[in-house]
Amino acid sequence: FKLLTTTADWLPCYVRNEQDESKMVYRENEDDYPDLKWLIASTGNYSIQCDVEKLTISITRKGGETYSAIYMIGDATPGGWSWDNVTALVQDAEDINHFSYSGPLFAGEIKFPTEIVHDWSGQFLLAPVPNCAPTAEGTYVVGNSPDNKWVIPTAGEWKIDIYADKQTICFQPL
User: Any alpha helices (H) in the chain, and if so which ranges?
Assistant: First the structure.
C-alpha cells in the first residue's frame, strides 16, 4: 500500500523509503521518487501510525484474526447441527472485528464456524474448555480440535458479541 493525500488522484502521495521501511517519502509527481509501497505479508489486524512532518511510519500487527464471516452451529442454535441452516452473526459496519447475534437460543451446545465446510474440517471459534459455561467476558480458541463447545443452560433470548481483534466472546441473556 501507499498513502494518498486525496481520493481524486494517485499523486501526491507518501511512499516507502527505499533504505528504511519506517520512513516515508513525499512524492508529488512521477519523476520524484520510485513508487515504492509497503507490503503486508499476512492477513490480520494492524495499527498504522504516520507522522507526515517527520516522514515516519509505524506498522504494528495487533492480536486476533480477521474474519469475513462468523456463523453459529449446534443444538442450542435455531439451525441445529445442520450446515444448511447455520446462523450468520452480523458484522458491524464500523468495526469489522465485531460480530453479534441477538435472538433465540435453546439449551444445548454451540460453537462458531468461520467458514461453511460440510465435512467439519474448517476453522471454529471454540470454547477454551469442554462444556464451557457462557459468560459476559469470555475468550475463545481458534481451531478444530479439541472440539470444546459452550453449553447454553436455558432456552431464551440471548445476545452474543464476538470481538475478533481481542479474541473475546460475550454471552448475555436478554
Answer: none
Say if residues 99 and 113 touch (Cβ distance below 8 Å).
no
The conformation of residue 97, written as its DSSP 8-state character, comes to: T
- What sign does the CA torsion over 141, 135, 103, 108 have? positive
Question: Residue 83: phi, psi to the nearest 5?
Answer: -65, -25
Whether this prediction's pTM lies above 0.90 is answered by: no
Residue 121 region by backbone torsions, left for phi larger than 0, else alpha for psi between -120 and 50, else beta: alpha
Name residue 62's amino acid: K
Tens digit of each residue's pLDDT (9 = 90 or more) over 20-32: 999 999 999 888 8
Q: What is the per-residue pLDDT for 60?
A: 83
